[in-house]
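FAQ: What does the model actually see?

It sees only this:
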Amino acid sequence: MLRRPDPPATDGTTALLTAALSAASLVNCPGRWWHWSYGDRHWACTTEAPHARYGAAVRGTRP
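And it is asked to produce this:
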């Protein structure tokens, strides 16, 4: 059975988490306080980067 994520803490830890992850250039997905992105399409659109840093993984390939 799938379990929904716990609601965000209200004791200041959410603000601390947001500050730390934002300072590390991650972006938060609206409506999902627990989901942060870096380098994907959402990140590129949010930061107005010219393109995503990486795309989907292709099975059977290695860098």
